[in-house]
Amino acid sequence: MAATDLIMYEEEFQKIKDVISKLRIDANANVVFLVDKNGQQIAATGDIESLDTTSLASLTAGNVAATDGLAKLIGEKEFSVLFHEGEKDNIHISIVGGRVILVVIFDERSSLGLVRLRVKRCSEELNRIFNQIVEKSEKEQAKGGAFFDSPFAEITDEDIDALFKD
Amino acid sequence: MSFINYSTREINCKIVYYGPGLCGKTTNLQYIYEKTNPAAKGKLISLATETDRTLFFDFLPLDVGTVRGFKTRFHLYTVPGQVFYDASRKLILKGVDGVIFVADSQEPRMDANIESLENLEQNLVEHGFNLKLIPYVLQLNKRDLPTAVPVDEMLKVLRYKDEPYFEAIAPKGIGVFDTLKACAKQILVELSKK
Question: Which residues of B touch A148 (CB under 8 A)?
Fold first, then answer.
């Protein structure tokens, strides 16, 4: 397969959750979530009970991908920030380190300026964590990949069939 | 590129339905959506034009259960089939784990099938994938139509490697789940090799 799979371990996952929780409070936002560029949700925090986060993640990634395409057409590398303004709620989307998408949903209790400021700070931190994840994977792989023992290594035909018995 | 989260013990895989315009990609997803237990599925999202032609993609998240303690979910996407939407099609193939090619069995659509298959091959290359290597299933849809080309003739021109193939009538659900299962199975087997 072309790209390496993204594998998230407890330690980094916790760090990421802490960083976005802090962002939510600092920016006075309702929801903050992190999506990879393929539309998979990585982490979310805030008032997410009432939200369909899976669909949000997929549409966000589609949105970013389409905007990326637009950027390339006019000779830009990317548009690193997208902002959608609604009557009550707004969505601020930014690309972190060129690989993940940070989404902040906020209403009139916050402002675009505040969100932009806090997102900028938080992005640096997230970028650092993602660099660590990559580094860790490379190191572990160099060691012989013991860390990468896939939980699916011993998957059997029965396991797969069991998934689909209606 | 599947996403494995060891922390929440979840694994998400992406399957893309590809094929020429009006071959039944969206219909496949709609049937799966209708027949799946509400607890196991998310919303079916269709970004379509006013005439119900897919504009960007359809999306359906599907929970299939647990493998080795990991909650397994497939994200099903369709591409817009019409030729001029190629830029959008390319975007959707990003990070794909498996592809289902839906071919239209009607005789006048054979050229469109071939063109779409070549387009798939090229677009995958641009993302660094090789159709020869990734999980792949061929579906021969619209078998009930009077101008349907015989199966062996279709296979002669459309079978790319020794991929599994299924005859289907998507609105009635014939072949729909078999196709999906075959693709999902290949993806999980691929994961187990890593």
Answer: 194
Domains and CATH numbers, chain B: 3-192 (3.40.50.300)
Interface test with A, best of B89, B188, B190 (most A CBs within 10 A): B188
Would you call B45 an interface residue with chain A, using a CB distance cutoff of 8 Å? yes
By the 8 A CB rule, do B32 and B178 touch? no
User: Mind telling me how many Å the CA of A107 is from chain B's nearest CA?
Assistant: 25
Domain count, chain A: 1
Collect all residues with Cβ–Cβ distance below 8 Å to B123 and sequence separation of at least 6: B86, B89, B90, B93
Contact at CB, A164 and B181, closer than 8 angstroms: yes
Chain B: closest CA distance from residue A88 (Å)? 23
pLDDT in tens, chain A (166 residues): 334 556 778 888 999 999 999 999 999 999 999 998 888 889 999 999 888 888 898 899 989 989 988 998 899 998 999 999 999 999 999 999 888 999 999 999 999 999 999 999 999 999 999 988 888 877 776 775 544 566 677 777 777 777 776 5
CATH of the domain at A68: 3.30.450.30
Cα-based angle B71, B138, B98 (whole degrees, multiple of 5): 35
